Amino acid sequence: MATAPIEPPQRLVSSLSGDPESPVREWLDALPTLVQQRLEAWDLTLERVQAPGGRSSLVCLVRQKDQTPAALKFPVPGGVFAHEGTALEVWDGWGAVRLLRSDAASGALLLERLQGGVSLRSLPEAKALLEAAGTVRRLWVPAAPEHAFETLAGRTEEAAETLRTAGALTPSAGPLVDRALELRRALPDGSDERFLLHGAFRQGKVLAGERAPWLAVGPSPVVGERAYDLATLVLDRFEDLAAGAGAAAAARRRVAKLADSLEVDRDRLRDWTLYRAVDIGVREVAAGDRQRGELLLEFAAWL
Protein backbone atom coordinates (compact mmCIF):
# COMPACT_ATOMS: atom_id res chain seq x y z
CA MET A 1 0.00 0.00 0.00
CA ALA A 2 1.14 3.53 -0.73
CA THR A 3 2.47 5.73 2.09
CA ALA A 4 3.39 8.84 0.11
CA PRO A 5 0.48 11.32 -0.25
CA ILE A 6 -1.07 11.66 -3.67
CA GLU A 7 -1.15 14.92 -5.57
CA PRO A 8 -4.38 15.86 -7.40
CA PRO A 9 -3.83 16.52 -11.13
CA GLN A 10 -3.56 20.16 -12.16
CA ARG A 11 -6.64 19.92 -14.42
CA LEU A 12 -8.81 19.03 -11.42
CA VAL A 13 -7.23 21.70 -9.21
CA SER A 14 -7.69 24.40 -11.87
CA SER A 15 -11.33 23.55 -12.49
CA LEU A 16 -12.39 23.93 -8.85
CA SER A 17 -13.07 27.00 -6.78
CA GLY A 18 -10.11 29.08 -5.70
CA ASP A 19 -11.96 30.10 -2.52
CA PRO A 20 -10.17 28.31 0.35
CA GLU A 21 -13.38 28.46 2.38
CA SER A 22 -15.53 26.66 -0.20
CA PRO A 23 -16.63 23.07 0.57
CA VAL A 24 -15.24 21.87 -2.76
CA ARG A 25 -11.84 23.37 -2.01
CA GLU A 26 -11.89 21.77 1.44
CA TRP A 27 -12.64 18.44 -0.24
CA LEU A 28 -9.73 18.95 -2.62
CA ASP A 29 -7.37 19.68 0.28
CA ALA A 30 -8.59 16.53 2.07
CA LEU A 31 -8.16 14.26 -0.98
CA PRO A 32 -4.71 12.88 -0.09
CA THR A 33 -6.04 11.76 3.31
CA LEU A 34 -9.26 10.36 1.81
CA VAL A 35 -7.32 8.33 -0.75
CA GLN A 36 -4.95 6.90 1.86
CA GLN A 37 -7.88 5.94 4.09
CA ARG A 38 -9.58 4.03 1.27
CA LEU A 39 -6.33 2.31 0.25
CA GLU A 40 -5.95 1.02 3.79
CA ALA A 41 -9.61 0.19 4.41
CA TRP A 42 -10.01 -1.73 1.16
CA ASP A 43 -6.52 -3.24 1.11
CA LEU A 44 -5.57 -1.60 -2.18
CA THR A 45 -2.16 -0.89 -3.67
CA LEU A 46 -1.79 2.43 -5.48
CA GLU A 47 -0.20 2.27 -8.92
CA ARG A 48 -0.63 5.89 -9.96
CA VAL A 49 -3.02 8.81 -10.14
CA GLN A 50 -4.62 9.06 -13.57
CA ALA A 51 -3.44 12.22 -15.32
CA PRO A 52 -4.35 14.59 -16.77
CA GLY A 53 -7.65 13.15 -15.52
CA GLY A 54 -10.98 14.93 -15.50
CA ARG A 55 -12.34 18.19 -14.11
CA SER A 56 -14.89 16.66 -11.76
CA SER A 57 -13.17 13.67 -10.13
CA LEU A 58 -9.89 12.12 -9.11
CA VAL A 59 -9.13 8.60 -10.34
CA CYS A 60 -6.38 6.38 -9.00
CA LEU A 61 -5.30 3.17 -10.70
CA VAL A 62 -5.00 0.51 -8.01
CA ARG A 63 -4.66 -3.22 -7.46
CA GLN A 64 -6.85 -5.20 -5.13
CA LYS A 65 -5.52 -7.71 -2.60
CA ASP A 66 -5.66 -10.50 -5.21
CA GLN A 67 -3.80 -8.25 -7.70
CA THR A 68 -6.88 -7.64 -9.83
CA PRO A 69 -6.63 -4.15 -11.39
CA ALA A 70 -9.28 -1.59 -10.46
CA ALA A 71 -9.89 2.16 -10.43
CA LEU A 72 -10.52 4.15 -7.26
CA LYS A 73 -12.63 7.22 -8.02
CA PHE A 74 -13.52 10.25 -5.92
CA PRO A 75 -16.17 12.40 -7.65
CA VAL A 76 -16.52 16.04 -6.61
CA PRO A 77 -19.12 15.93 -3.83
CA GLY A 78 -22.66 17.11 -4.43
CA GLY A 79 -24.19 18.36 -7.66
CA VAL A 80 -24.99 16.14 -10.61
CA PHE A 81 -22.46 13.49 -9.56
CA ALA A 82 -24.02 12.78 -6.17
CA HIS A 83 -25.78 9.60 -7.29
CA GLU A 84 -23.18 8.17 -9.67
CA GLY A 85 -22.64 5.10 -7.49
CA THR A 86 -26.37 4.52 -7.12
CA ALA A 87 -26.83 4.52 -10.90
CA LEU A 88 -23.92 2.11 -11.37
CA GLU A 89 -25.55 -0.21 -8.83
CA VAL A 90 -28.78 -0.15 -10.84
CA TRP A 91 -26.97 -0.97 -14.11
CA ASP A 92 -24.78 -3.61 -12.40
CA GLY A 93 -22.30 -3.67 -15.28
CA TRP A 94 -24.92 -3.75 -18.04
CA GLY A 95 -23.61 -1.20 -20.54
CA ALA A 96 -21.62 0.60 -17.84
CA VAL A 97 -18.49 0.15 -15.77
CA ARG A 98 -19.10 -2.22 -12.85
CA LEU A 99 -19.13 -0.82 -9.32
CA LEU A 100 -17.14 -3.07 -6.99
CA ARG A 101 -17.41 -1.15 -3.73
CA SER A 102 -18.52 2.25 -2.48
CA ASP A 103 -18.13 4.36 0.64
CA ALA A 104 -20.89 6.82 1.41
CA ALA A 105 -18.84 8.92 3.83
CA SER A 106 -16.03 9.76 1.41
CA GLY A 107 -17.97 9.28 -1.84
CA ALA A 108 -15.30 6.81 -3.00
CA LEU A 109 -16.15 4.36 -5.77
CA LEU A 110 -14.08 1.27 -6.54
CA LEU A 111 -14.62 0.43 -10.20
CA GLU A 112 -13.50 -2.25 -12.61
CA ARG A 113 -10.47 -1.12 -14.60
CA LEU A 114 -11.17 -0.04 -18.18
CA GLN A 115 -8.81 1.25 -20.86
CA GLY A 116 -8.89 4.91 -19.93
CA GLY A 117 -7.01 6.00 -23.03
CA VAL A 118 -9.32 4.25 -25.51
CA SER A 119 -12.78 5.77 -25.98
CA LEU A 120 -15.26 5.66 -28.84
CA ARG A 121 -13.66 8.85 -30.14
CA SER A 122 -10.80 6.64 -31.36
CA LEU A 123 -13.14 5.05 -33.92
CA PRO A 124 -14.28 6.46 -37.27
CA GLU A 125 -17.34 8.64 -36.79
CA ALA A 126 -19.93 6.28 -38.28
CA LYS A 127 -18.66 3.30 -36.28
CA ALA A 128 -18.44 5.37 -33.10
CA LEU A 129 -22.05 6.55 -33.42
CA LEU A 130 -23.22 2.98 -33.99
CA GLU A 131 -21.40 1.68 -30.91
CA ALA A 132 -22.52 4.64 -28.83
CA ALA A 133 -26.17 4.06 -29.75
CA GLY A 134 -25.90 0.41 -28.76
CA THR A 135 -24.31 1.32 -25.44
CA VAL A 136 -26.74 4.05 -24.40
CA ARG A 137 -29.69 1.81 -25.25
CA ARG A 138 -28.55 -0.64 -22.55
CA LEU A 139 -28.53 2.10 -19.92
CA TRP A 140 -32.12 3.14 -20.44
CA VAL A 141 -33.97 1.20 -17.75
CA PRO A 142 -37.31 2.24 -16.23
CA ALA A 143 -36.79 4.22 -13.04
CA ALA A 144 -38.21 2.77 -9.84
CA PRO A 145 -41.28 4.63 -8.51
CA GLU A 146 -39.34 5.76 -5.43
CA HIS A 147 -36.02 6.54 -7.07
CA ALA A 148 -33.32 8.73 -5.53
CA PHE A 149 -32.34 10.54 -8.71
CA GLU A 150 -32.84 14.08 -9.93
CA THR A 151 -35.53 14.58 -12.56
CA LEU A 152 -35.16 16.43 -15.86
CA ALA A 153 -37.62 19.06 -14.67
CA GLY A 154 -35.49 19.73 -11.60
CA ARG A 155 -32.16 19.70 -13.39
CA THR A 156 -33.20 22.02 -16.21
CA GLU A 157 -34.99 24.38 -13.81
CA GLU A 158 -31.77 24.81 -11.83
CA ALA A 159 -29.86 25.45 -15.07
CA ALA A 160 -32.31 28.02 -16.44
CA GLU A 161 -30.99 31.03 -14.51
CA THR A 162 -27.40 30.17 -15.44
CA LEU A 163 -28.46 29.93 -19.08
CA ARG A 164 -30.22 33.28 -18.89
CA THR A 165 -27.23 34.96 -17.23
CA ALA A 166 -24.63 33.43 -19.54
CA GLY A 167 -26.76 34.24 -22.57
CA ALA A 168 -26.59 37.93 -21.68
CA LEU A 169 -22.87 37.80 -22.51
CA THR A 170 -23.77 36.92 -26.11
CA PRO A 171 -26.51 39.39 -27.12
CA SER A 172 -26.64 38.05 -30.67
CA ALA A 173 -27.76 34.70 -29.25
CA GLY A 174 -30.80 36.27 -27.59
CA PRO A 175 -33.44 34.64 -29.83
CA LEU A 176 -31.79 31.22 -29.44
CA VAL A 177 -31.59 31.61 -25.67
CA ASP A 178 -35.26 32.61 -25.57
CA ARG A 179 -36.15 29.55 -27.64
CA ALA A 180 -34.05 27.28 -25.43
CA LEU A 181 -35.73 28.62 -22.29
CA GLU A 182 -39.14 28.12 -23.90
CA LEU A 183 -38.22 24.52 -24.67
CA ARG A 184 -36.91 24.03 -21.14
CA ARG A 185 -40.31 24.94 -19.75
CA ALA A 186 -42.24 22.70 -22.13
CA LEU A 187 -40.10 19.63 -22.76
CA PRO A 188 -39.93 18.00 -19.30
CA ASP A 189 -43.72 17.98 -19.02
CA GLY A 190 -44.28 16.76 -22.58
CA SER A 191 -43.28 13.14 -22.07
CA ASP A 192 -44.44 10.29 -19.85
CA GLU A 193 -41.06 8.53 -20.11
CA ARG A 194 -39.33 7.90 -16.80
CA PHE A 195 -36.07 6.20 -17.66
CA LEU A 196 -32.81 6.29 -15.75
CA LEU A 197 -30.48 8.24 -18.04
CA HIS A 198 -26.70 8.61 -18.10
CA GLY A 199 -27.15 12.38 -18.11
CA ALA A 200 -23.80 13.26 -19.71
CA PHE A 201 -23.55 10.68 -22.47
CA ARG A 202 -21.07 11.19 -25.30
CA GLN A 203 -18.44 9.18 -27.15
CA GLY A 204 -15.67 10.19 -24.75
CA LYS A 205 -17.67 8.67 -21.88
CA VAL A 206 -17.57 5.18 -23.43
CA LEU A 207 -14.32 3.30 -22.81
CA ALA A 208 -12.90 0.01 -24.04
CA GLY A 209 -13.12 -2.89 -21.59
CA GLU A 210 -12.33 -6.58 -21.31
CA ARG A 211 -15.66 -7.84 -20.00
CA ALA A 212 -17.44 -6.01 -22.83
CA PRO A 213 -16.02 -4.13 -25.81
CA TRP A 214 -17.43 -0.76 -24.73
CA LEU A 215 -18.74 0.45 -21.35
CA ALA A 216 -20.05 3.83 -20.23
CA VAL A 217 -18.41 5.76 -17.40
CA GLY A 218 -18.94 9.02 -15.53
CA PRO A 219 -22.74 9.31 -15.38
CA SER A 220 -24.51 12.31 -13.90
CA PRO A 221 -27.75 10.31 -13.59
CA VAL A 222 -31.14 11.84 -14.10
CA VAL A 223 -34.65 10.46 -14.68
CA GLY A 224 -36.62 11.49 -17.74
CA GLU A 225 -37.03 10.85 -21.44
CA ARG A 226 -34.45 9.18 -23.63
CA ALA A 227 -34.20 12.07 -26.10
CA TYR A 228 -32.37 14.13 -23.47
CA ASP A 229 -29.56 11.56 -23.28
CA LEU A 230 -29.39 11.22 -27.03
CA ALA A 231 -29.08 14.97 -27.61
CA THR A 232 -25.43 15.13 -26.53
CA LEU A 233 -24.67 12.25 -28.87
CA VAL A 234 -26.07 14.33 -31.74
CA LEU A 235 -23.62 17.06 -30.71
CA ASP A 236 -20.60 14.74 -30.62
CA ARG A 237 -17.83 15.83 -33.01
CA PHE A 238 -19.99 18.76 -34.10
CA GLU A 239 -16.85 20.59 -35.22
CA ASP A 240 -16.22 17.92 -37.87
CA LEU A 241 -19.82 18.14 -39.00
CA ALA A 242 -19.63 21.93 -39.22
CA ALA A 243 -16.47 21.77 -41.32
CA GLY A 244 -18.10 19.69 -44.04
CA ALA A 245 -20.28 20.72 -46.96
CA GLY A 246 -23.99 21.04 -46.25
CA ALA A 247 -23.46 21.13 -42.48
CA ALA A 248 -27.02 22.20 -41.64
CA ALA A 249 -28.58 19.37 -43.63
CA ALA A 250 -26.06 16.92 -42.18
CA ALA A 251 -27.01 17.98 -38.64
CA ARG A 252 -30.69 17.38 -39.33
CA ARG A 253 -29.90 14.00 -40.92
CA ARG A 254 -27.97 12.97 -37.82
CA VAL A 255 -30.97 13.80 -35.63
CA ALA A 256 -33.27 11.75 -37.85
CA LYS A 257 -30.88 8.80 -38.07
CA LEU A 258 -30.26 8.53 -34.34
CA ALA A 259 -33.92 9.06 -33.48
CA ASP A 260 -35.06 6.35 -35.86
CA SER A 261 -32.36 3.86 -34.84
CA LEU A 262 -33.32 4.14 -31.17
CA GLU A 263 -37.07 4.64 -31.64
CA VAL A 264 -37.06 8.16 -30.23
CA ASP A 265 -39.37 10.89 -31.52
CA ARG A 266 -37.49 13.01 -34.09
CA ASP A 267 -39.06 16.32 -33.10
CA ARG A 268 -38.35 15.85 -29.41
CA LEU A 269 -34.76 14.85 -30.11
CA ARG A 270 -34.36 17.94 -32.29
CA ASP A 271 -35.77 20.16 -29.54
CA TRP A 272 -33.65 18.65 -26.77
CA THR A 273 -30.57 18.95 -29.01
CA LEU A 274 -31.31 22.59 -29.67
CA TYR A 275 -31.75 23.22 -25.95
CA ARG A 276 -28.52 21.45 -25.00
CA ALA A 277 -26.54 23.09 -27.82
CA VAL A 278 -27.61 26.55 -26.67
CA ASP A 279 -27.07 25.72 -23.00
CA ILE A 280 -23.55 24.39 -23.60
CA GLY A 281 -22.77 27.06 -26.18
CA VAL A 282 -23.49 30.07 -24.00
CA ARG A 283 -21.58 28.49 -21.11
CA GLU A 284 -18.56 28.00 -23.35
CA VAL A 285 -18.71 31.67 -24.39
CA ALA A 286 -19.01 32.71 -20.75
CA ALA A 287 -16.01 30.54 -19.87
CA GLY A 288 -13.90 32.24 -22.54
CA ASP A 289 -14.07 29.73 -25.39
CA ARG A 290 -16.00 32.01 -27.75
CA GLN A 291 -15.12 30.09 -30.93
CA ARG A 292 -16.45 26.77 -29.67
CA GLY A 293 -19.46 28.39 -28.03
CA GLU A 294 -20.50 30.30 -31.13
CA LEU A 295 -20.13 27.20 -33.27
CA LEU A 296 -22.48 25.34 -30.93
CA LEU A 297 -24.96 28.19 -31.22
CA GLU A 298 -24.69 27.99 -34.99
CA PHE A 299 -25.41 24.24 -34.75
CA ALA A 300 -28.53 25.05 -32.72
CA ALA A 301 -29.66 27.51 -35.38
CA TRP A 302 -29.42 24.80 -38.06
CA LEU A 303 -32.03 22.78 -36.16
Provide structural commentary:
The protein is an alpha+beta fold and 303 residues long. The protein has 2 domains: 104 residues, Phosphorylase Kinase, domain 1, CATH 3.30.200; 185 residues, Aminoglycoside 3'-phosphotransferase, Chain: A, domain 2 (Alpha-Beta Complex). It has a 5-stranded antiparallel beta sheet, with helices on both faces. Helix 5 packs antiparallel against helix 6, helix 6 crosses helix 10 and helix 7 runs antiparallel to helix 9. The longest helix has 21 residues. It is globular. The termini are far apart. The mean pLDDT is 91.
Major beta-sheet overview: 5 strands, antiparallel
Q: Structural class of the secondary elements?
A: alpha+beta
Write down the Rg: 20 Å
In which order are the strands of the major sheet placed?
1-2-3-5-4
Taken together, the total number of domains comes to 2
Query: pLDDT average, as an integer?
Result: 91
Q: In what range is the share of β-strand residues? A: 15-25%
- List SSEs in N-to-C order: HHEEEHEEEHEEHHEEEEHHHHH
CATH superfamily of the largest domain: Aminoglycoside phosphotransferase (APH), C-terminal lobe
Q: Any low-confidence stretches, pLDDT <50, length ≥5?
A: none
Number of helices: 11
How many beta-strand segments?
A: 12
The 3D shape can be described as globular
CATH-defined fold name of the largest domain: Aminoglycoside 3'-phosphotransferase, Chain: A, domain 2
Helicity range:
40-55%
What is the rounded distance between the termini? Answer: 53 Å
Report the top-level CATH class of the largest domain. Alpha Beta
From the coordinates shown, what is the CATH architecture of the largest domain?
A: Alpha-Beta Complex
Pfam families: APH_6_hur (PF04655)
InterPro entries: Kinase-like_dom_sf (IPR011009), NH2Glyco/OHUrea_AB-resist_kin (IPR006748)
Region (Disordered): 1-20
Protein name: Aminoglycoside phosphotransferase family protein
